[in-house]
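assembly run, all chains below
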Amino acid sequence: MATAPQEVCLTDNLMHFMALSDTDMHLLAELEQTPQPVSRGQTLWKAEDVPRTLYTLRRGWAYSMHRSESGEGQVLDIFLPGDLMGIRELTLPAHSTDVVMLTSGVVCPFPAERLLDIFQHSPSLTLAIHAAAARQQVIISKRLVNILRHDARARIAHFVLELYYRLKRVDESVHRDFSVPLLQSDFGKLLGMTKVHVSRTLGEMESQGLLRKTRKDIQILDLERLLEISAFDPMKLTDQLNPTLTAALFPSAPT
Amino acid sequence: MATAPQEVCLTDNLMHFMALSDTDMHLLAELEQTPQPVSRGQTLWKAEDVPRTLYTLRRGWAYSMHRSESGEGQVLDIFLPGDLMGIRELTLPAHSTDVVMLTSGVVCPFPAERLLDIFQHSPSLTLAIHAAAARQQVIISKRLVNILRHDARARIAHFVLELYYRLKRVDESVHRDFSVPLLQSDFGKLLGMTKVHVSRTLGEMESQGLLRKTRKDIQILDLERLLEISAFDPMKLTDQLNPTLTAALFPSAPT
DNA sequence: ATCGAGAGATAACATGGGTTATTCAAGGTA
DNA sequence: TACCTTGAATAACCCATGTTATCTCTCGAT
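ok done. output:
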């Protein structure tokens, strides 16, 4: 077990799928000039707020949740270190979810207008940010497809693999036993089932030798079978940019 | 009944939430220079294809669907006239869904690199395109939240309202009785239920005076109650741009 | 008109997951 | 240490939805 959660910045994230020029790195670094510690449970924004500030998440986990009048809420996003938070709602007149820290951590807030500067000064960085936003959407779309077609066990398998591969992407040291600050009830809010059924299903999955979730972490016991029952697509490919665009962006560079 | 589906172009769509300069309109018009008729059932792209071409949909409906080895597929997007198709996967190395015409119609294909030109020449249009992409994602996120928390009846209510408001946005003439080229099985693939249960539930909803779906169209019988049971958010607000950004973009203009 | 294929309706039955309640375990606090 | 709060496990029961199988209707093709 034991992941060493060193800090991850947005640059680390974007560099995964795109080469950045020095100018671009400099522009990005400006966004992350004001790291700010945040505590577990702290709210970064609430539904109905006008989006004014974007955040990069350097350390810790956060989630976004849609709260319904009828009491309970549904979780939409899980944000991990390196993620850019708020890009989806940047152009909307109001947020529709609350965003709350799941752990203590460090975020870098910056004003939304700053992105307009980037749009003006760097087409390649514009593309990189669009690519980051698209990848967040892909995660949600895959979760939707997964939920549309699978039962409780496969939903959990899929989501655990989502976390595993996303974490490994930004932190090579992540092991098959990794720390996860999510409760069973959070799983329920993410996957559309009650916490009672999450508990039942986790028990079943452990007895089947698939995975083990404790209060603080998750152990993947049988990666092969989890991939199989969830039909998870490891999306290694997602870490590459569309080659057509690469060619257009860097006409001189080799493919 | 009787909607008169005149053609809708991307400009009509983007203008809904953002003022466009003459230069911007000119750039957009260039994208739509090559209208091309397409027939019902025609495939625009398939999963695994490398994204090279984007399409604007000027007339007709299309859908994107994730096909699983195990036979059936799940529908992710419904595209309506005025929509930009392919923006989500623009930066990805491969498509993950098929896109197929639900009706005959007209599309305007243009090469993906063309968007890079736009990123270079017009920050405001860049923002508009980002806004359009974000709005498509909002639609999917709302559908996910809806599916996470609601039963079959509310899922159908929510989806019908989604269609109703999206259609009305681009075509004022849309009435509470509007044409919908979707089968009951399509509803199932969109909402995560079997066509048998869709049929049962539609029957129930008709007998409750909520709505009536025939082979070709849908009649909304009780808008109020549909809004209530689905907790649908009419997202009129979505047609406005974030005022913070508007102020930054057009510092001289009045709010 | 006739025919056939695909869409929708319906019914009987099976089951996954929701509901409610209770007990148990763990961690934080005085 | 003892206490208290919160999360997890478990059980009994019930209902919404899935499954399978006909049957009927509509519409397009000949």
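The radius of gyration of chain A is 19 Å.

Residues 151-152, 193-194, 196-197, 200-201, 215 of chain A lie near DNA strand C (CB under 10 Å from a C1').

not gonna interpret more than that til we talk
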